[in-house]
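Hi R.,

Here's the chain you asked about this morning:
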Amino acid sequence: MSARRDVVVVGGGHNGLVAAAYLARDGLDVLVCERREVAGGAAVTERPFGPDYRITSLSYVVSLLPASLVSDLRLDKHGYQVFPQGPYFAPRADGRYLRLPDDPADRSREIAKFSAADAAAYPAYQAHMRDIARILGPMLVEIPAPLGSRSPAGLARQAMLLRHLRKLDTRRSVAVIRLLTGSVADLLDPYFASDAVRGVLSVSGVIGTWAGPRSGGTAYVTLHHHIGDVDGQPGAWGFPRGGMGGVTGAMAGAARSFGAQIRTGAEVARIRTTPGGRVAGVTLVSGEEVDAGLVVSTVHPQIAFGQLVEPSALPEDFLADIRRWQTRSGTVKINLALDRLPVFTSHPSFDPQVHGGTIVLAESLDDLENAFQEAVRGQPSAQPFADICIPSVFDDSLAPAGHHVMSMFTQWVPCGYAAAPHEAELGAYADRVIARMESVAPGFTSSILHRQVIGPHRMAEEYGLVGGNIFHGELSLGQMYHARPAAGYADLRTPVRGLYQAGSATHGGGGVTGIPGRNVVRQIRADRRAARLRVR
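And here is the predicted structure, written out as tokens:
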């Protein structure tokens, strides 16, 4: 006999937990089914080196998580706490370094060490990014308007876009189009000339993407990383106490406090549908069936609609969009346990704004472009770039006293590495990343106690990130807003009535935002209200 629930959420990552918490708060009987033995998806804290070290395996910083969501779900009551991340610090092979502190005067002095003209241009660059972020940022948290729809509701939603578009004058509209279509190199070219500045700033345009800094669309990725809020500071990023599992642990605690049940080790084998095109519930790998009139899928769309739902229940044009969904990656995550902090040649003294910031290994924009092009040609980068943080500088719960954990988010290996482990090649690649760190912080290699290397194949197999893509799909213009992840279904509905989607491949995903999880609840509420009105 089948169990019965009001809602089944497929996938216990951050979006699934957010959706479950809101729906349970609304009084619905909610079950979350998570394939792995721990909830949290790619935002988890694990112990690969034994009990003494807590490692954030994949996602490693929090931003774009709306303050209103934190307040709604009372995440602080469940242990949510964020330490603001320090600024960029880029040690260089020639013994110098570039820092980008928050204080404008300090930052200007730092940049002027490399170029007085770049220092003078930086405020204008920041103002340009803030201006566009003010226009596009609010659209990130909303359910997309169905562009091209001719239905009365669709036309009304499109008209609502005027709230944002009326902020555009002629010059701003051109600036927005250039940013959406251009590369991060195009974005930086009018402002900066020095390799040091261009190298550091170009990282935010390519991180997590299968694209180099001269690839179209990477300018928007830069903007995406400028939109965020930690303690009311736009564009800020932070380290959650307890690692990223502290975020999803708080979300799970909130969901349970409202009455949701979270089951781990409960892999869904099938999302069942009726002959009439409605969702009927799920069947687990164990054979257990759970009936539900509402199912929310937060797994990758190629898993949900390519494996879990019967193809006959889905229209061919929808399936074609899902099959074409680009989800490539060349990312390798390297996690380390250290017996001491690195000592940089260029900045040998301890500084929480250095060791507790974002440490960037990238000599120039061309350095990154060359690394990407090597991967495109089928070779792992000879000089990978790395985006590095040491959260244990602030969070003493992650490592024993005097020891630290380090997260190295690196690129690129060939995107084809998602199809097989390539362990030997990944080991050699990790050696090169560590050697690059050694060159700016002598003695670093000998401080490493433990090492974990996670490539695209493991990301896909263990964490469900198809292709190893952390965003569940590339953040390119053709895969944004109303095209994310299929034409006509960016409102988080699907062709199956009662089946909704809310993973990172939907609008608002790309980072641990929780926005798709919250928006799917808004859409479900609207649809339930409309159904009640039709009954009356």
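One quick note: The CA atoms of residues 468 and 505 lie 13 Å apart.

Cheers,
M.
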